[in-house]
Specification:
The structure is a single chain. Helices cover 34% and strands 17% of the residues. The protein is of the alpha/beta class. Strands 1, 2, 3, 4, 5, 6 and 17 form a seven-stranded mixed β-sheet that branches. Strands 8-15-9-10-11 form a five-stranded parallel β-sheet, covered by helices on one side. Strands 12-13-14 form a three-stranded antiparallel β-sheet, with no helix packed on it. Strand 4 and strand 5 form a beta hairpin. Helix 2 packs across helix 15. It is globular and about 110 Å long.
């Protein structure tokens, strides 16, 4: 099958599903401009999947905005530096159960069934190419180079989204519902330890989420802080780009070798996480946080295969300082000097860290507001996560916050504690997107409940017009 033939198959499959039917949501008019039923912030895989899911539910008055240029949404062409995805290739995601929309269908259309069998893991760049195709074949309403600056809630149930950027059609958008599909960092911010940020000039370090000038680092000696998968991805990438040495520093005496995601993928944990009690949810994610996601065996082998690779176990950084144009790092096993540091220390999730939420974050319930964990599982990093509904909606801390947060949905990494592996992993999206879409659709329906029920009870359109012949004959005799 060719890609052109697959494109036709997708259209046929969607027609069999009656995709694209008439909207059921009541349109709203507003003096300030067009009101979208849903604006999705983020045009990566989560935002695209959410948009397709809403369109399948006959909610088409939607818009997706993304701050990046077209084709560069998400991490895959920016800070993601792995060679292949870590997710097993057979797991489906944003296709939402449509076989012709799967990565496998797209791949086989170009390489044949044998090409699929030859793939061990999905190449990172090809995943991005698939997402570009997915957006195009579905005709998803995405506009690029539009950055969300601020969400201003209104008493009229309309959120005003203040936006900027070369692609922005105006200074604000009006939306009944807002979905923050803003990726791994969208629920907070990337974390750089103060030990580094407070003692080094920015020219000497970068977080793994940032752009790194690999050309300037050719022939240089680099240190990477962290023992998770991303640390080894970056070490391999920098060595491949010409760095002389890449030293990975891990505080533990042994590298993590267990990946709880693999167990979650086969145990029903991903699909049924919403059915757990708060105590179980918290305990599961607290346990999950004890493990850095280990590097895949092939990633570690690639990194370790370079002559310039060094691994330092049991070597937390105790002190970092600038000495002339170098970064000096002190560990329990000695002091080292490097030309540049790469920090792979993850992120912090807290709505209070997001500038676009500054008008509403005080009203947003956190886990610390709803659940007190026992000492053996308590974790302040989890406590700061937003406490969400099973449909990914922010919940208010109190009655005062009910209106400001109503209509705001979180489909990014900060949903992890409330909703499990969802927008935080490709393997979770197959089950998470329908839950998000149902949450949004349910809110739209219930917001208009009175009008919908009034219309139902007043409905009197005649459908049946048949006349029983015997009754007609009797009437003629009378």
């Amino acid at each position: 099958m060719s890609l052109e033939a697959l494109n036709e198959r997708v259209k046929t499959d969607l027609s069999y599903l009656a995709y694209g039917g008439a909207d059921w949501v009541r349109p709203l008019s507003h003096t300030e401009g067009h009101v979208y039923d849903v604006v999705i912030v983020g045009g990566g895989q989560s935002g695209l999947g959410a948009a397709f899911g809403l369109l399948r539910e006959r909610i088409s008055n939607i818009l997706v905005i993304d701050e990046n240029s077209e084709g560069l949404e998400g991490p895959w062409e920016t800070y993601a530096r792995m060679v292949t995805l870590r997710t097993p290739k057979h797991l489906t995601s944003v296709d939402l159960g449509v076989p012709s929309l799967t990565f496998r269908s797209w791949w086989e259309a170009q390489t044949g069934p044998g090409g699929w069998e030859a793939v061990e893991k999905i190449p990172r760049g090809e995943w991005m190419n698939y997402l570009r195709w997915y957006r195009k074949i579905l005709g998803l309403p995405v506009i690029n180079e539009v950055r969300l600056k601020l969400i201003e809630p209104g008493q009229d149930g309309i959120h005003r989204l203040h936006i900027a950027g070369a692609g922005a059609p105006s200074e604000q958008l009006l939306a009944r519902k807002v979905v923050l599909a803003t990726g791994i960092q969208g629920g907070g911010e990337w974390h750089v330890p103060p030990m580094v940020a407070d003692h080094l000039p920015k020219a000497l370090y970068a977080h793994t989420s940032e752009a790194i000038d690999c050309t300037a680092l050719r022939g240089k000696k680099i240190a990477v802080l962290g023992g998770g998968a991303s640390a080894f991805d970056n070490a391999n990438f920098l060595l491949a780009e010409g760095a002389a040495e890449a030293h990975v520093f891990v505080r533990r005496e042994r590298l993590p070798n267990v990946n709880p995601i693999r167990q979650m993928e086969v145990s029903g944990m991903i699909e049924r996480f919403h059915a757990l009690s708060d105590a179980d949810k918290y305990a599961v994610i607290s346990h999950f946080f004890k493990y850095n996601q280990p590097p895949t065996n092939d990633t570690f082998a690639r990194a370790a295969g370079w002559p310039g690779f060094r691994l330092h176990l049991g070597s937390p950084w105790l002190k970092v300082q600038a000495i002339r144009d170098k970064a000096a790092v002190t560990t329990p096993k000695g002091e080292f000097s490097f030309d540049f540091l790469v920090v792979s220390t993850g992120l912090l999730s807290d709505p209070g860290l997001r500038p676009e939420l500054k008008l509403v974050e005080r009203h947003i319930a956190r886990w610390s507001d709803r659940y007190e964990a026992p000492p053996e599982t308590a974790n302040p990093l989890l406590d700061a996560h937003p406490y969400l509904s099973p449909g990914f909606a922010f919940q208010p801390r109190d009655e005062e916050g009910r209106k400001p947060v109503h209509g705001l949905f979180v489909f990014n990494y900060s949903a992890l504690v409330s909703c499990g592996l969802s927008a935080s992993a490709i393997s979770g999206m197959k089950n998470a997107v329908p839950k998000l879409v149902a949450g949004v659709a349910d809110q739209l329906f219930m917001d208009d409940r009175e009008e919908i029920l009034d219309a139902f009870f007043a409905y009197d359109e005649v459908e049946f017009s048949g006349v029983w012949p015997a009754a007609k004959a009797q009437a003629s005799l009378e």
